[in-house]
Design goal:
361 residues, mainly alpha, 2 domains
């Protein structure tokens, strides 16, 4: 049997889609079900004075590494023994990826989990059911490969991710107008594409002004598409896109890429407004993933609020002001809902966008 036949039999598909879309998207769901939910619960518990909620949030956040790795294994269609063994791999990769080569704190935990869990899962799949002692061999191979790789390369990944994220955040602080446009547009596009903007933001630890610009870009896409396509999709489409995902429009974008112009231009407008006028920031480091969520379940807005609370507690912010709330509401909802349809009007008149182009199936 040649290598190609072996890989096919083991369901090991080496492709950009399998690793860059399926695995990355699953990792974001794992993050959502652990770190992000944990942050929300912790914030609610703190604000409402309910210690039990805060405790639940802490437990959920602590499981982010295993949750991400298991989600990745699920996306790669790993057999049970491999899937369950990935909990250990995820824990090791996330912990070691969250440090740098110098021993400092890094932001590369999620990125390390992505790379290492993929390799460990595929190695586990390759050995699965190849021996009579599968119950021992498969977990051993999966865990040893995963933990070994974590020790070897996770700190380097943490260093690289932290460096890239730091450069983006430094550049945004230095040039908030230009970088507000760039970050908002790029992360907004990533949110609508079949990849994970949340995972990208989490992997780079995108917080601060850059996180605020990312929130603006994601909201422009989600709310923009929801309002712009209201005629075709009515209230169901408004909800599914506005607090669900603009990724639902991807099939229509492939058919007519011009429908993407209004949300992209809107993100190019709201990004610098967020960074230059309202100084909108995502300042809770645990919520970097929320930077890439936009209005999905209102996670982006909850993340910004959690950052305000953290800043007030740390003494770096005097109080949460009315202007803070006005900025968040305008950037998240009002401006995308107003600007996107306005930008679309001349495109409709020119025949670039026609009725039915954004109809969800």
């Amino acid at each position: 049997m040649n290598v190609k036949e072996f890989l096919k039999r083991k369901n090991i598909v080496v492709s950009a889609k399998r690793y860059g879309i399926d695995a990355l998207g699953a990792m974001a769901q794992g993050l959502f079900a652990s770190l992000l939910i944990g942050t929300i619960l912790n914030t609610l518990g703190t604000q409402l004075g309910i210690p039990a909620l805060s405790a639940c949030g802490g437990y959920a956040s602590a499981m982010s590494g295993p949750a991400m790795a298991i989600a990745i294994g699920y996306a790669l269609q790993a057999p049970p023994l491999v899937l369950f063994s990935l909990a250990t791999v995820g824990s090791a990769a996330n912990a070691l990826g969250s440090t740098t080569l110098s021993g400092g704190s890094g932001a590369g935990g999620p990125l390390a989990v992505l790379f290492i869990a993929v390799i460990a899962a595929e190695c586990g799949k390759a050995i699965s059911k190849e021996t009579k002692v599968d119950i021992l061999v498969t977990p051993l191979v999966t865990i040893l490969v995963g933990v070994g790789l974590s020790a070897l390369i996770a700190p380097a990944i943490g260093t690289a991710a932290s460096s890239i994220g730091s450069v983006i955040m430094w550049a945004t602080d230095l040039q908030p107008f230009l970088m507000g446009i760039v970050v908002s547009v790029v992360i907004g596009i990533a949110l609508t594409l079949p990849i994970s903007s949340a995972a990208i933001c989490a992997a780079l630890g995108l917080t601060g002004l850059a996180g605020g610009a990312a929130v603006a870009g994601c909201c422009a896409q989600m709310v923009g598409f929801a309002v712009m396509s209201f005629k075709e999709n009515k209230w169901g489409g408004l909800v599914s896109q506005g607090i669900g995902t603009s990724m639902l429009q991807m099939g229509n974008i492939v058919k007519n890429p011009r429908i993407w112009i209004p949300p992209i231009l809107t993100s190019a407008i709201t990004g610098p407004i967020a960074t230059c006028i309202f100084r909108l920031q995502m300042n809770d480091p645990a919520s970097a993933v929320a930077s890439g969520m936009g209005t999905c379940g209102l996670v982006g807005q909850i993340g910004v609020y959690a950052g305000w609370v953290s800043d007030v507690a740390a003494g770096t912010k005097a109080a949460i002001t009315v202007m803070d709330w006005i900025g968040l509401i305008l950037i998240s909802f009002v401006l995308p809902a107003v600007l996107t349809p306005l930008i679309a009007m001349p495109l409709r008149k020119a025949g670039w966008i026609k009725d039915g182009d954004m109809k969800l199936q």
